[in-house]
Every structure is written in structure tokens, then in C-alpha cells.
Write a structure and sequence with these properties.
The complex is a heterodimer of chains A (about 325) and B (about 375). Chain A is an all-alpha fold. In chain A, about 70% of the residues lie in helices and about 0% in strands. Chain A is globular, with a radius of gyration of 20 Å. Chain A starts with a helix and ends in a 21-residue tail after the last helix. Chain B is an all-alpha fold. Chain B has a domain of about 230 residues. The longest helix of chain B is centred in the middle third of the chain and has 30 residues. The chains are: A mainly alpha (about 325), B mainly alpha (about 375).
Amino acid sequence: MDFLTLIQLLDSTVRLATPLLLACLAGLFSERAGIFDIGLEGKMLAAAFFSAAIAALTGSVWIGLLAGITASMLFSLLHGLASITFRGNQLISGVAINFLAAGLTVLIAQDWFSQGGRTPSLMGGARFEPITLPFAEAFGSVPFIGPIYQELISGHSILVYLAFAMVPLTWWILFRTRFGLRLRAVGENPAAVDTAGVSVVGLRYAAVMICGVLCGIAGAYLSTALQAGFVKDMSAGRGFIALAALIFAKWRPWYALYATLLFGLFGALETRPDVIEALFGIKVQGALLGALPYVMTVIILAGFVGKAIPPRAGGEPYVKER
Amino acid sequence: MEVMPKWAEVTLVPLISLLLAAILSALVILAIGEDPIAAVNLMVTGALGSTYGWGYTLYYATNFLFTGLAVSVAFHAGLFNIGGEGQAMLGGLGVALACLLIPWPHWTLALLGAAGAAALFGAAWAAIPAFLQAKRGSHIVITTIMFNFIGAAVLNYVLVNLMRPAGSMDPATARFPETTHLPTLHDILAPIGINFSKSAPANVTFLIALLACVLVWFLLWRTWLGYEIRSYGKSEPAAKYGGISPTAITMIAMLISGGLAGLMAINNVMGEAERLVLNAVEGAGFIGIAVALMGRSHPFGVLLAAILFGFLYQGGAELALWTSIPRELIVVIQALVILFTGALDNMVRMPLERLFLMMRRRNA
């Protein structure tokens, strides 16, 4: 395999890892606050549709992004209502949200555009275009570093850079601010937070809404940057891979970056069977490679390779003592 | 003391939840510019107006009965099995292997053999998540979700590379031999003078699903094992104190659950398609969640809910055929049912409980 193929492979790794990373960080906020969220998939899907639809109607991708985030946050609000206010089962609520998004997006897409559950193709300002970083052209001819800078680092959409910037930001919020300390505490021992006079409900809603914003960006990236428009079920299990990555990362931001990059690489390899054949000399089935993140997550969950321990109060509604 | 009388618990709560889901669904239909009343009329005539419609309704209901029972048994043990989809997929593989490899002399024997294989494969696919939950404490919801995806990949690999007949481009197995074809409701009802539609896929499996309902009820409420499963689900420490092994109950409950989900394959793979195709389950594993929640995890409730969803499924197909409402409307309704009967249960329950408390105080 030559150098340029490697760069191309890594380039598509970054592209495919971005939505996973955003969704994974979204889940991180929610689950660190003790709210399990298996509805990442649905929120991404809803955001993907509404960003593409509004971008197609207004011609502005930024208004589209805003619409996507709003849609995702509405689903988050529903999840909060069910799992925080009404103390319902968080897992069941997540399942409901996934189906609600899967059904509603196609229903509304058919009603608005009548194109069999898709939006019109986005063009020009209705899409996030790749950004060429300064001096990318000039550096391109420098050996080794040049192609890395020009092909791999430069030339992504703004959302990719945003996603990568979110990693240190998430780390800083969670581990260096008062809000982050309280957010983590509410996921471990909500009663203690309550005793300290801080609102458990408020903190959890805040976490769930942040989760909504990040899922919204992830969904918008799918339909307005990675592809040009919405198609039915376009999240294609990415929400669940992000969930897997979250477990793989043991609920930590930097690890989330590595896990999603790894799963992104699997995704990139899936589309390039020739590379695998050249590397290992064997034909690997794309379908089996696609299942690798799930298999690895099960192994991690089984605790054979370093145990993944979720936040202690995760999944349990908080009931104030009376 | 229970705040709500038992009858209110089993009828009022699910009915109000259902009503809320129905109202919201009607609003959705209105919002996309269609008439909800006309839609319901069309669904009723399409799904229940002919033996052809009934044949499809009961066919879908059979699928949902198996997956609904599967989710219910796990629920009783306090486990949430989202893996019905994958378990039913693998059940299909078991059916295909049994039908293709063994030369059955008669359909009755083939049915027994295929049902055994389906249950075995389904149970096997539930066994690993169950074991990891019981022994390693890995969250069963996450592992069963992962196993759905792994199951889909395995099936894809097997169908494309191993079981596809030579020269065929379609990722599906060969047709099952004639002797494994199950009698449809038409064949069963014709001798007693009922003229049931010939082209509908409902078949003898429906009767087996009914039998499964009875057996699950018997297991849960009339046997030691059922008692242990239910007490483990109600309170793990209490069950442990009573000498019930959490590992054994988790494993047994999940194996039964996976086996029931796998059994669905004798309906859709053996009874209808008569070969194994890639997407044979079509989301029935997930609908089992809605069915179990709506049926309050009781076999009789599951039966009613499964028939309701069978009706919705067939009615939804008719809607998609005759109006501009896409089939995804059913997915929305399914989501709303899961939301109201499952996640927002307390939203319905809390005001009702308050109402009953008020009435009781007035009477006292």
C-alpha cells in the first residue's frame, strides 16, 4: 500500500469518525449525568432530516443546522420528560425515540418533498463545503508532511474541526469546571448532590439538552456535509456504534476520540476491500468488518480486556427522600 | 396498600395510554393532510374486512405473538431483551438448516424439527448476552443491541457465501422442499366448510403461537420456575434470600426468551417465504417490545396487543397502497405506543392514582 492510499484511508476515517465522535460525546454528557441514552440514533436521524430539509427550503446550511439541533433537542426534551420528570424507564424511552424519529422523518419527508422519503439534493450554500486551510496548496509539494497537511488535515467541513475541538472542551467542562464536577456527581450519587442543595433535576436536564445539541450537529453533518441530502434511515446504526464507542472509551472524552477514530477506520476499510487484501493477503467480508465494533464492545463489556464500569447511578430515576 | 384497584391497573392504564397514542397518531395523519377517519375506515376494511385481510393480520400477529412473549418472559425476570430481532434472525437460520438438510417425510415432522431448530438457534443467540449479564454483569440491553447487529452480519455472510444456491445473485437460500410446506389457514379451515382466502400467508403456526401463549402463562403462574422468575424480577435481594440463584434465573429466562423469539421463524421463514431471505424479520423483534409493554407482559394481554399490531401492520400496508400515507406511519404509531405504555407510564398513572385516592377519601 502506498503513502497516498494511506492518506486517503485516514482521510475517510476522519470523515466517518466525525458523526460517531459527536454522538459519542453527546452520550457521554448524558450518561455521565446518570441518564442512559440509547436514543442517540433517533436524535441523529431527526437532526439529519430537519437540517437537510430546512437547508433545502431556505438555501442556507446554517439555518438548516439550527433546525437540526432544535429537532434533536426536542427529542432530548421528550427523553428528559420521560426519564427525569416522570421517572420512566430510560431504555424504553430511548427505543421509542428511535422509532419515532425513523417513522416521522420519512412521513414528513414524503409530505414535504414527495420524493419517496428523501430531501432534494443540496447544492451550494445549502451544504457545508470543505474548508481549505491556509497554505494547503503551498505546502502540498513538501514531501511527507505536505500531503498530510493538504489531504488529511485540510479540506474538511467546519463541523469536522468543531467535532475534534469538542474533545478537549468536553474534557475541560467535565473535569475542570464546577458544573462538570456536579454533572459527574449526579451520575454517581445524586442524593449527595441533592444534599448539597444543587438541583438533580436541573443538572440532568442540562446534560440531556447538551446531548441533544451534539446529536443535532452529528445529524446535520450526515446530511449536509458527509452526504448532500437526507435519505431514509441514513443514520444506519451510527448512534449504536457511538454507544459502543462510549463503552469502549469507558465514558472518557479523550478515549472517546480514539474509539471513534478506530471505528471510523473500520468503516473506511469496509469501503476499501482492496486495501485489506493488499495488507493482510486475505479477503475479509465487508459485512463482518462492519460488525467488528459491536463484537469488540461485547468483549470490552464482558470485562476480559479492562472492565468498563458505567456511572453508578446510570439508568435509575432519582426519587427524593421524603 | 395498593392505590389503584386491580381492574383499573389492567384496563384503565393501558387503555388511556393507547388512547393518547391514537390521538397523537390522528394528529400526525391530519398534519400530513389526510383524513384520520377515512384512514381508519380504510385500515379496518383492508385488515379485517375480508378473509384475505384477516389472513395477513393473523400472519403478522403470529410474528408479534412470539416476539411479544419473548420480551414479556424477560421482563418478568427484570431483564430487557432488545435482542428479539437478532434472535429471530438466527431462528430463521435454524429453520433453513433444518428444512434444507433433513429430508422430512411429512410437514408435521418437519414443523417439529424446524421449531426445535428455531428455538435452539434463537436461544443460543440469547445465551451469550445472558451469560455475560449473569456472570460478568455486562448490561444486557447493550449486549443484545450489539448482538442484533452481529446477527445481521453473520446472516449476511452465511447467505451470501455459504447458503446461496450456485448461480443465484439473490442473497437467499434455495426454496425449501415441498414436504416442509406448512398448511395455510385456508387448508385447515376448508374441511370444516369455512372458505378462507387462499393467498393469505396465515398458517398453522398461528395455532402454535396460541399454544405458546398458554404455555408461557402456565410456566409463569403455575410452576416453581415461573415463580422464581417473577420473584427474581420483582426483587433481586429478596429472591437471593429465598435461595433463588440469580445466575440460573437470568440464564433460563433469557434462553426461554430467545427461544420464543427464534420460534417466530417457523411463521415467516417456513410458513410464508419458504426460504430464508436477508431481511426476513422486518422489525418484528422490535415490535415485540411494544406488544409486551401494551400487553402488560401477560400472555393474554400480549395476544390482544399482537392482534392489534397485526391489524395496524396490514392496515398500514393498505394505507400505503391506496393513499399517499407511507408505511412508516405504523412505525410512528408503534413508537407512540412504546412511549406512552412504557416510558411515560407514570404520566398516565400519577393523575389516575390521585383520582382514586380522592375517591377513596370521599367514601371514607
